[in-house]
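User: Hi! I'm working on a homework problem where we have to compare a predicted structure to a textbook description. Could you give me the structure for the chain below?
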Amino acid sequence: MQKRLVMLLLVFMLALAVTVTGCAGGDSDSGTDSTASGDTIKIGANYELSGAVASYGSDSLEGFQMAIDEINAAGGVLGKQIEVIVKDNKSEPAEATAAAEELMTRDNVVLSVGPATSGSYRAVIPVAMQNKVPVVSSSATADDDITVDKSGNVREFVFRTCFTDSFQGRVMANYASDKLDAKTAVIYADNASDYAKGLAANFKDQFTQNGGTIIDEQAYVAGDKDFNAVLTNLKGKDFDVIFVPGYYEEVGLIIRQARELGIDQPILGGDGFSSPDLISIAGAENVNEVYFSDHSSPLDQSPELDGFLDKYRAANNGKEPNSAFVSMGYDMGMFVADAIKRAGSADSVAIAQALSSTTNFKGVTGSFSVGDDNNPIKSAVVIKLENGEQVSAERI
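Assistant: Happy to help. Predicted structure tokens:
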């Protein structure tokens, strides 16, 4: 009887060991591999779908999902369908961190896209590095501590498909100097935003290098509604342009209140202006002589962008995309699928290596290669708005 009990116990222990070994097959020190999880490759989408900047996240996800739908309809990647698992980070960095942990440790995604904003994207980086799962943002433009850490080390699992704030800040300073013949400027920036502070610093540096003078610098904080006191003070000053780096919720109000006070100088900004909500908040009649840097424009024609816009209109009853975030999200979907295909595997480490070795990727927002710092080498578009409509787009 005792021998029989011992034998039964040994059989049970052997079965348990086999079961545990089988379950561990999809996760290892080399990263996550979805090949153990059936016929899908799981990708996370960690976006601002509610909260202060929901427009950015919603538009990015729309474009990304459009690309994935196309890829799946054509047979998927590596013979598998891509499954997108969506989380709403509510426009809050802490929520973005929690969403990333859920996606990587519970949902077992092999890659995650988003968030759209730099602060929330920065918050998911430690989770990505710890779990060895690549994260990609198409719009987190902050310079500091994103793809390269404070010690100068490149983060092997962190990627972007967008230009940086230093680039677009300098582009707008050069545009002010060269195209608008500006000699003096005012900076009115959101001092609670790394995005706005980075743009302001780089605009100031380049504009003064160009021989221009910053005659005044003012600050606001995200959530402010009344800008009349500062704008009334600025109205009495002599300047050529006003640079207002920030997000559409406050910028829309600043534009409206500035124009209502009679401030008619050109208003410049970055890609935070890229939202239809900016026009509705400011009022189309106030959005004149407004210039901002962006990643693409329907006016910036190319065969790739024209083809994308045709497909988008056909799927949306002739409607145009809300913003460039849609086309940027689309490019990101194609970019990550291309990397998975080149990796020849759904292993997250292999995917990261393929992302870092991308050359001459041809997207609808332009072609780019991934540099040694995991950032793309690409151009920007400067867009002019009149009566709330895009009237020109110049690629820089």
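For your comparison, note the following. The chain has two domains: 31-163+302-378, 166-294. Residues 31-163+302-378 form a domain with the Rossmann fold fold (CATH 3.40.50.2300). Good luck with the assignment!
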